[in-house]
Amino acid sequence: MANYDYDYFVIGAGSGGVRSSRIAAGHGAKVGIAESTALGGTCVNIGCVPKKLFAYASDFGPSFDDAKGYGWSMDNVSFDWNTLIENKNKEISRLNGIYEGILERAGVELIRGYARFIDDHTLDIDGKTVTAEKILIATGGKPRRPNYEGAEHAIVSDDAFYLKELPKHVVIEGAGYIAVEFAHIFHGMGAKVTVIYRGDSILRGFDAQISDFLANEMKKQGINIELGTNIIKITDKNDKKYVKTDKNNNIECDLVLSAIGRVPYTQDLRLENANIAYKDNGQIIVNEDYQTNVPNIYAAGDVTDRVNLTPVALAEGHVLADRLFNNQPDRAVSYDNIPTAVFSNPQIGTVGLSEEDARNKYSNIKCFTSDFKPMVHTLSGRDERTFMKVIVDQDTDIVVGVHICGRDAAEMTQALGIAVNCGATKADFDRTIGIHPTSAEEFVTMR
Question: 210: pLDDT confidence band, cut at 50, 70 and 90?
């Protein structure tokens, strides 16, 4: 047997990579991990964590107005962008330290640097050569950048967390979850927001009623949504951006944020040196065991471009380590009924099938819906509504999809995800006593 430096080496210290390395080391493997940037990956540094902090900051804006209906006086309210950035940076730095401590306590050797393949068992990490019996690629993804004229004048989500000042008018290209979340963030902080998208509805792939409901709520807030529209050129002149569209519009703004999707991050890994198969967009091809076409090399998380969610990457990394180093070949990740959330305003929470997918899968579907003004706005006066939807396979009475657009949707959906994964029926929902008065009680009173 060959003598390797490590039993297991992980490329990328994001959520999935750190989890897999820690678990493998706990099983007794000699483990190393390489990271060229901050620990924690996209989620901790330029993704879910700072974005949620920004969303919290944005939520305070309308909440101050809402408080007036409850007797609070909100004079001289102001917002300071630099304070938010400074406090966000402190929190991200704290989390980086936590990740470093996790690796250190687990006995995982951290090598700072960019790893590149020399062959299927050998890596070059900024001049340092290491060998490993098994290698995991967990490098995640990155924003896809546009390629029209003047695209260099647009930023992507990575850049949005380090802006020097809050823009007054933001044009957002795209209408996926990242686009609508940043629309919420900038609008809540006081900026004018214009969303431009080539398709005919926002949040492609979500339940159509939920997507349309959110779009209507965003428009009521004053967010401009231009569908069926493409950006064809950006001009930068006198610190202003001018966005030309194929509808012959020329929009003046301070910032253009392109949020047109993400692609796997495999840039300069030199996968060809190990003969690792991948697709044109960089997606590493793996089987159900997270194994590439090279038997000792694995990939997990967003770099495989399957279910690009941090909790999924964590689960995949954990399962892989258990399979490889703890003799648990039957350990698996369940990809059914994964709860997801969009931190828009109002929030979206979803688990299970959309109505469109449910009708394609089942022959006898019934949908139960509720559209109402949440109690908090009976005194605030805000024109905001909540929409809930339960999708049932009538042949079995099993709930196959639950969707929410409203306040606290993410928190509700996490609990509802347990019920859906347990195969709860509509009768189970109906016999559950509601908590009154809450929005969530609607789920057990729909008839």
Answer: very high
Annotated domain spans of the chain: 6-143+263-325, 151-260, 340-444
Outline where 250-373 has alpha helix (H). 310-325, 355-361
Give yes or no for a contact between 167 and 40, defined as CB atoms under 8 angstroms apart.
Answer: no
Name the token pair of 444: 């057990």
**pLDDT digit string, tens, across residues 95-126:** 999 999 999 999 999 999 999 999 999 999 99
pLDDT at position 239 over 60: yes
Contact 259, 143 (CB under 8 A): yes
Q: Which class in CATH covers the domain with range 6-143+263-325?
A: alpha beta
pTM: 0.96
Q: Report the alpha-carbon distance of residue 284 to residue 421 in Å, rounded.
A: 29
Q: Phi, psi (5° rounding) for residue 320?
A: -60, -45
Q: What is the pLDDT of residue 398?
A: 98
pLDDT, one tens digit per residue, over 177-200 is 999 999 999 999 999 999 999 999
Secondary structure class of 366 (helix, strand, coil)? strand
Query: Of residues 153, 187, 318, 436, which has the active-site annotation?
Result: 436
CATH superfamily of 340-444: FAD/NAD-linked reductase, C-terminal dimerisation domain (3.30.390.30)
What distance separates the 2 farthest-apart alpha carbons in the chain?
75
Does 436 qualify as catalytic in the annotation? Answer: yes
CATH architecture of 151-260: 3-Layer(bba) Sandwich (3.50)
Contact 234, 252 (CB under 8 A): no
Supply the DSSP string of 187-207, one letter for each residue: HHTT-EEEEE-SSSSSSTTS-
Region at 342 (left for phi over 0; alpha for psi -120 to 50; beta for the rest) = beta
Contact 51, 181 (CB under 8 A): yes
- Are both 6-143+263-325 and 151-260 of the same fold? yes
Which single residue is written with the structure tokens 């198969």?
A: 277
Tens digits of residue pLDDT in 359-370: 999 999 999 999
What span, in angstroms and rounded, lies between the C-alpha atoms of 30 and 376? 54
Please check whether residue 152 is in contact with residue 275, taking contact to mean a CB–CB distance below 8 angstroms. no
Question: How far apart (Å, rounded) are the C-alpha atoms in residues 297 and 291?
Answer: 6
